[in-house]
Amino acid sequence: GTLLIDHFVQHWTSSADETAPDIRLLETLEDGDTVTHRVSVTDGGRGISSSRVSVSADGSLHPFSYNETTGILQVTLPAAPLSALSVVSVTAGDSFGNYSRFQIKRDGEAVPRADAAADLDTSWGARTLRYLDDMGLLICAELEGVRYFEPGRVTTRLEIFEMLMLFKGVDTSLYADTVLPFSDLEGLSESQLATAKAAYALGYVSGELQPDGRLLLNANGSLTRATFCVIASAAAPQGLGFVPAQFTDNADIPGYAFNAMSRFAANGLISGIGGGIAAPQQTITRDQVAQILLNLLL
């Protein structure tokens, strides 16, 4: 006789996997003019498809080898970094959309650019800032021919959006036709308006609703560290692995920011200000923004 099958029904008895792949550095081997990083990239103790793994060096995709059976990744680079820092980022995702990110940073001894910002050494993150300056990723003010980044100054909301656009390489002219709903745009320059339009169109900003019904951009307002993490998470690859934050001041993290800060902490994107303190209600400074964006986007 003939057996006719109409359809199959597959039943899952457990919930979807919410654990992101595990990425960790095994060793770094130097051999003359090159350095090789051996990295373990696994999910549930097993290797994953190489199509779900990527490597970038200083912001650009870089070739690598990956053994799907052993889960061992190797990436080779010049031994001498071309800047104050060398940053290798390894990313991996699984079939459920979970995503992990891991960075390897090495010091370099390159000579700073001739017009390097003059105040970078005043920051705790001077090495990072020199690297980003070499990469053209710092927005500086200029006074009498000297560039200044003002690393310890509180960052304005608009400056954060400008930095996001720069790090992500967004062409703001593509959003020129975007209509902004904010009622406090008077006084913004054309470039600032272009940044605001792009940030709004990309979902990085929704505005601040006032009791009288007005919606404000509040371009010159400040942001807390918690709120910045929420904004930056909108620009991050979706699916970052989640582990509840374990900061000593967890109770100070607003409910709307807990997931973002937890994901950032779990992936090494933020580490707090020392002593296990996240300081979520503290206003965020320019050097802190630069460091987190480096960890997140390069």
Description:
With 298 residues, the protein is of the alpha+beta class. It has 6 helices and 12 strands. A 4-stranded antiparallel β-sheet has the order 1-2-6-5, with no helix packed on it. Strand 11 and strand 12 (215-216) form a beta hairpin. The termini are far apart.
Low-pLDDT residue intervals, each spanning 5 or more residues: none
Largest sheet: 4 strands, antiparallel
Annotation, overall tally of beta strands? 12
Distance between the termini: 62 Å
The number of helical segments is 6
Question: Characteristics of this structure?
Answer:
298 residues; alpha+beta; four-stranded antiparallel sheet; globular
Could you give a quick summary of the protein structure above?
The chain is an alpha+beta fold.
Set out the fold topology.
Elements: E1 22-31, E2 34-42, E3 53-57, E4 60-61, E5 65-67, E6 72-78, E7 85-93, E8 99-107, H1 126-134, E9 141-143, E10 146-148, H2 157-168, H3 190-201, E11 208-209, E12 215-216, H4 225-235, H5 258-266, H6 286-297
Helix pairs in contact: 2-3, 2-6, 4-5
